[in-house]
Amino acid sequence: MSPKLIDTFWEFSNPTKFKRLARYVIPLSAGIALTCIVVGLIWGLFYTEPDYKQMETVKIIFLHVPAAFVAINTYLVMTIASLIWLIRRHYISLLAAKAAAPIGFMMTIITIITGSLWGSSTWGTFWVWDPRLTSFAILLCFYLGYIVLWSALNKLETASNVTSLFCILGSIFALLSRYIVFFIDQGLHQGPTLSLDEEKNIDNSYYFPLILSLIGFSALSIYLLFIRTITEINIHRISLVEKRGESGA
Amino acid sequence: MLELFGNYSFVIISSYLISIILVLVLILQSLLSKLVSERKLKEREENVEKPGR
């Protein structure tokens, strides 16, 4: 990455510049999310053939896989943002990590619910302690822990450091446990849905609506991340204005 | 509608319904919090700028 590009990136640690960027990103991501999700889900739900093995239940894949993709990558975003806070002390990165947690939490819930419903008809059970399912249960616990920590600690300085450290600690368990399952070929859950190996990859009739849905869910998470980060910036600014008012009175 | 996906209609429709409801709740909550925070910030800034009012 060129030094100029890195400098441009750090410029967005300024709230005014971040809000200016959000003015473009929010409508763009909302448009992409709405189009891709609506087209992807309608295509997947009504215009794909049932699978020879899983029959119609395969149609849950268009929700389950994108939600899981967003759930895991949101934690990755939170980890990077927390690292930036701990190293460079940019408030926007801290507030972005805080803003991302409910998005990841909700996507993990959607992944677990759709997976359970899918499992109930294909495996005959809602839950098994399979490595992949367990890794998502761990991820859910870390999201919940992170959100609870933020609401439990009142002092911003303490909360920011503790939650960032918790997030980085969680990445060891949540992210590694997620990726380690690629190397553990056991349990009921199937292998990766999308693969560069053409033989392992899913059929083209499912591939394109799934990709659309993936793009849509990713755009939705970007849209929500920007909206929620702006809210966090506003809340932070309100507390600063109140302090200024108290000291001026 | 319930016959659309054969024996698995309940599972498929409930998956889609639950997911759509959860996503909509998240979107609405995010938008409402943004609106409330913007209004509060505006009020506070006006109060600080004009303390006599």
Task: Based on the model shown, name its key terms.
heterodimer; A: 249 residues; mainly alpha; 7 helices; B: 53 residues; 77% helix; 0% strand; rod-shaped
**Estimated radius of gyration of chain B:** 22 Å
**Biggest chain-to-chain interface with counts:** A-B, 38 and 31 residues
How many distinct beta strands of chain B? 0
Number of strands of chain A: 0
Please explain how this structure is put together.
By secondary structure, chain A is an all-alpha fold. Chain A has a domain at 61-188 and 219-244. Helices cover 78% and strands 0% of the residues of chain A. Chain A has helices spanning 3-11, 15-46, 61-88, 91-122, 131-152, 156-180, 204-248. Chain B has one domain. Chain B starts with 8 loop residues before the first helix and ends with a helix. At the A-B interface, helix 3, helix 4 and helix 7 of A face helix 1 of B.
Summarize the structure.
The complex is a heterodimer of chains A (249) and B (53). Chain A has 249 residues and is mainly α.
